[in-house]
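TEACHING EXERCISE
Course module: macromolecular assemblies
Task: Read the component lines below, then compare them to the predicted structure of the full complex.
Student: A.B.
Group: 4
Components provided:
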Amino acid sequence: MLNIVDEKQKRTKCRQCPLLKMKLFRDFSGDELGFIENFKTGELNAGKGSTILVEGSHSAHLFTVLTGWGFRYKLLEDGRRQILNYILPGDLIGLQGSITGEMEHSIEALTDLTLCVFERDRVMELFRKFPELGYDLTWIAAREECILDEHLLSVGRRTAIEKTAYLLSFLHFRASALMAQDTPRFSLPITQQHVADTLGLSIVHTNKTIRKLVDRKLVKWLDRGCTVTNPDELVELAGWEPETTKTRPIL
Amino acid sequence: MLNIVDEKQKRTKCRQCPLLKMKLFRDFSGDELGFIENFKTGELNAGKGSTILVEGSHSAHLFTVLTGWGFRYKLLEDGRRQILNYILPGDLIGLQGSITGEMEHSIEALTDLTLCVFERDRVMELFRKFPELGYDLTWIAAREECILDEHLLSVGRRTAIEKTAYLLSFLHFRASALMAQDTPRFSLPITQQHVADTLGLSIVHTNKTIRKLVDRKLVKWLDRGCTVTNPDELVELAGWEPETTKTRPIL
DNA sequence: CGCTTACTTGACATTGGTCAATTATGGTGG
DNA sequence: CCACCATAATTGACCAATGTCAAGTAAGCG
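Instructor-supplied answer key:
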């Protein structure tokens, strides 16, 4: 399921990175792009459903998602699973592992995934040569923290219907920020089991809760995926405020 | 309740920082300490129960806790509260606010608190002049992320008794890492309401759950505070693994 | 065509929540 | 020192949200 592309010629050049063309991400100088291009040692293709990183393992790499969706999760010994966050194009993964050197969570592909691969060893070089990029890394980590804070609020204090509304609108807004303006409808590539494991609910109760949202015409659940039809009302129901940042860094 | 000390002479000098004497934190070069000392613009004393930062406000500062305990939390509109994490001596707060510029959570003092104050404006200067300190900031943010991941697992997937065992042992280990070796027993400065709001439980159920832990002689709850008497069994019950890092950065 | 995965649904069980009353305990003003 | 008050902890009775079990349907895939 995992396939590494090492040959320089086959790889996406950072200077032509399709993500950077989007207004969503900040502009980089030529020098910065040159460094990142050199910092990038390869590309990884992971098939849908494959596990990219495993809790407890050591990884010498950092990754940035180029295309596709995935999620981070932790397991308890008896198999109970908690999904921590979702990863979408532009997201950096593996930073947390820098601390203990050991991964504290696993990562799985929700769709086929393309990842840029970076060497962890050279991160310090990045901080030395390009302080702005170092600052970006801190920014990225702090943003992830904010998202986790909001998830914690949902899981801990929102009711089943509120937390479901929160999660679906959260994913909807994350995804739509990456879409062209005119994309009318798109489907979130998750199952109800993912929703359950993100929100700390059972799958049965998740199903019944989603059904209520469908009855209220806020979402549709078709073809093994979810389409959000009324994001604003969903946000309202959740008592949440979507992120408003214009541009963000990326590695 | 809040009181700022600006006069240079009254402040704790970073070179004599009592925290840095502990084996828990990494060594810094003279240059680094000089920079940090200059970066520090003052000290803030906050009385027990006072609110240091408020969700939605803008703060021009970062803080490091010198002495005392506090906690970060978020509120829903109707007052439901979720405690996100606890802050202890050596912890940095306010990094998250760098992103939107607006605080996404509030901070309250659990005990009287002394904080070192830094100017957020000068963070970029830190990254430029001392890349290692910049790296430390990323490290600190990534560590907070790991902790939040574990909290999310607790709140989402552990049972009431497991999550309570997790929280109390978590706080016990965090606190004991800051104590001298010989400190036999110390008390966590929290109420059962804090435990409830951290774990997403009601206060009544929290009380009954803590009572079970007391009956099993794993903790004591006296004088409005909790003493952990059997941390190992608590960790076992939670199905958790305490942090093992030897030294960490600090700002 | 038959298997597997995902989604549904109803009946019932249980964890954890709500309400309400009670008991410490420490602090404050007289 | 004492009466009074507020906060925190405790407990029992009852209730509601959510979990578990079980069975069934629908769609995708080799």
